[in-house]
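Sample intake — DUF1611 domain-containing protein
Collected from: Rouxiella aceris
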Amino acid sequence: MQQIPMPYLLFLGDVMDPLAAKTARGIHVWRPESCVGQIRLATDSVSLGLEDMDVTTAKARGAKTMVLGTANAGGKLPTHWIESIKSAIRAGLNVANGLHQGLLELPELVALADEYNVQLFDVRHMRPQLDVGSGKKRSGKRILTVGTDCSVGKMYTSLALEAAMRDIGMKADFRATGQTGVLVAGAGIAIDAVIADFISGAVESLSPANDDDHWDIIEGQGSLYHPSFAGVSMGLIHGAQAHLLVMCHELGRPHMRHLPHQFMPTLQQCVATNLAAASLTSPQVQLAGFSLNTSGVDEAQAKAALAEISREFGVPATDPVRFGISELAQSIKDRGL
């Protein structure tokens, strides 16, 4: 699978909305050692607190790739960013892009990259030749993060679990299925750009056979209960062939994201539905635990809610931001699967 060279220079452009910089922020949080600095087009735009530098300085400091670290409505590449991309190419930097519009769609950038012998990475369209999924049993162990809804922390949970499992001596690797995750990991497949028939096959390719004591932690997407994204979620579930599921949820969310008319499922409903779907390709699949976003309540309320969920289901429940995820990692190790 194609690997994006690290370390990175994070391009923040001139965005003013902190949420628009979520890709760059995710890279900085999870791979700080791979971030040489940031480049901005306006001094009052969003900052990650990294050193501001130009492309020449970044190259001299060891950067190998400039990452377009922002998202916008429609995923279009702003035309006034193109000159910055050209400057990076001329400085000898590869350029990685998580927007829907691809760098490879622009002949002038392709020609310049060829001239300076650098690569352009369109993360949403990076993938090997794919086959449809087979469901054939494969070696190794796999965890899939699933959710009651989209945007409930599946990527964060997956990365936190990778770190916690490694800390206790387990072999664990994060497998990215979204553009931010791909840039954090340096490789992966953006599932939202895969033709529907090939989603399960893409996940099989992303997490192939491995050692019996090796765990792949596969980043989930969407929710089986979200009308917009359930198809993607189902393909992920079947392709993952997961031994364990981790259920992600935001405490107190009133309805499905962006769909005020769509009810939120109960945890019981969501667990049962996900386990039933996963059993098609992994008949012995189990629930490992819960990862909740409890930011809407105080710490005492959060602890009480997590304790109640843990009692009800008999598995660990945590908020990885507030309380860490080491208990869940240890529980997985203790299962001895």
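Post-analysis note: Residues 141-335 form a domain with the Rossmann fold fold (CATH 3.40.50.300).
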